């Protein structure tokens, strides 16, 4: 596809207003392709990585790929993240290819990515009992990261200022819906399905421990030198400088990394620079109410 038409497609998607599918806001092109997404044919040996946007998706993707590639960074450099692990709910208008096209063209075993809330996952994943890794991040850091992502990702809706964005986020009026419902829905699903539920804060605290959990879930034997290589290759600093993991291969007409880099801070607690005391208390109160009785809790600092 020539560059001009790609540019035209991106500009047609710019700062669009979200539309709802079953009460959840999405890009209109996702709604247009909803039938295709529902009918997506998962395969029994697919591994699915599921997250609410900005929870550390790219991080766990790199960890999983390193595990699958025996800890060889050169093999992980074969393609950018989104080509190694297709994002099934990301659509572009034709003739551009979408995540589903990439997934269908990929030989098994595949590792796929989704941001869908649990109730909207294509049923074939449940039918085949596919393994799923879910990563959750505390709502406050997740909100700040999502705010900056809206600023730099020109196909996302206009975020407004921080106060305005936080209102939309708390109300679930952002792409992929409510953070609270997302993290709770997937948490409860792990009782019935093969889901490894991880926390961003735990990976940050002790990456080797969490990488070992992933290896065990995937049935991969890990030696100490390989584990060390994976820890090193997936630090924030290494990934920030890795063009195959930092989204720098995407054009600036989609991701404008001069506004805010994709690998922005990579920390726990950055929310303190954004939330007022009143905003923080309000989020705590909503969180307590929405997660009540679930047994799910989050750390907002280490
Ligand atoms: P910040 O914006 O807080 O820096 P996703 O991949 O789901 O879009 O999430 C992106 C967030 O994960 C960004 O958060 C990014 O910096 C952070 N991240 C990516 N790789 C990381 C790593 N290796 N270590 C810590 N955080 C990482």
Q: Which descriptors apply to this entry?
A:
two-stranded antiparallel sheet; four-stranded parallel sheet; binds adenosine-3'-5'-diphosphate; globular; 302 residues; 44% helix; Rossmann fold; single chain; 6 strands; alpha/beta
Tell me what the structure shows.
- With about 300 residues, the protein is α/β, with parallel strands linked by helices.
- It has a single domain (about 30-290), classed as P-loop containing nucleotide triphosphate hydrolases (Rossmann fold, 3-Layer(aba) Sandwich), CATH 3.40.50.
- It is built from 16 helices and 6 strands.
- β1 (about 20) and β2 (about 25) form a beta hairpin.
- The radius of gyration is 18 Å and the shape is globular.
- About 40% of the residues are buried.
- The model has no long low-confidence stretch (mean pLDDT about 95).
- Adenosine-3'-5'-diphosphate binds near residues 54, 57, 235 and 263.
- Adenosine-3'-5'-diphosphate binds near residues 54, 55, 59, 264 and 270.
| Terminal Cα span | 47 Å
The CATH class name reads Alpha Beta
Q: What best-fitting shape do the alpha-carbon axes yield? A: globular
* DSSP strand content: 5-15%
Largest sheet report: 4 strands, parallel
């Amino acid at each position: 596809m020539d560059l001009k038409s790609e540019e035209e497609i991106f500009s047609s998607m710019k700062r669009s207003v979200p539309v709802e599918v079953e009460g959840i806001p999405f890009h209109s092109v996702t709604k247009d392709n909803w039938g295709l997404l529902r009918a997506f044919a998962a395969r029994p040996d697919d591994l699915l990585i599921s997250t609410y946007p900005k929870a550390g998706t790219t991080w766990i993707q790199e960890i999983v790929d390193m595990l699958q590639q025996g800890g060889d960074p050169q093999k992980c450099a074969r393609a950018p993240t989104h080509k190694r692990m297709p994002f099934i709910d990301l659509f572009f208008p034709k003739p551009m290819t979408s995540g589903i096209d990439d997934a269908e063209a990929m030989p098994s075993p595949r590792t796929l990515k989704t941001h869908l809330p649990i109730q909207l996952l294509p049923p074939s994943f449940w039918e085949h009992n596919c393994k799923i890794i879910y990563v959750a991040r505390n709502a406050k850091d997740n909100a700040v990261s999502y705010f900056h992502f809206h600023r730099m990702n020109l196909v996302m809706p206009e975020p407004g200022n921080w106060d305005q964005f936080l209102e939309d986020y708390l109300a679930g009026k952002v792409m992929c819906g409510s953070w609270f419902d997302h993290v709770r829905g997937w948490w409860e699903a792990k009782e019935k399905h093969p889901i490894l539920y991880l926390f961003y804060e735990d990976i940050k605290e002790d990456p080797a421990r969490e990488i070992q959990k992933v290896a065990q879930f995937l049935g991969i034997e890990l030696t100490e030198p390989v584990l060390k290589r994976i820890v090193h290759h997936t630090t924030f600093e290494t990934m920030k400088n890795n063009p195959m993991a930092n989204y720098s291969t995407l054009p600036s007409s989609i991701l404008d990394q001069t506004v805010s880099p994709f690998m922005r801070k990579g920390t726990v607690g950055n929310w303190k620079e954004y939330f007022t005391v009143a905003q923080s208390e309000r989020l705590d109160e909503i969180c307590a109410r929405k997660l009540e009785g679930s047994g799910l809790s989050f750390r907002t600092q280490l």
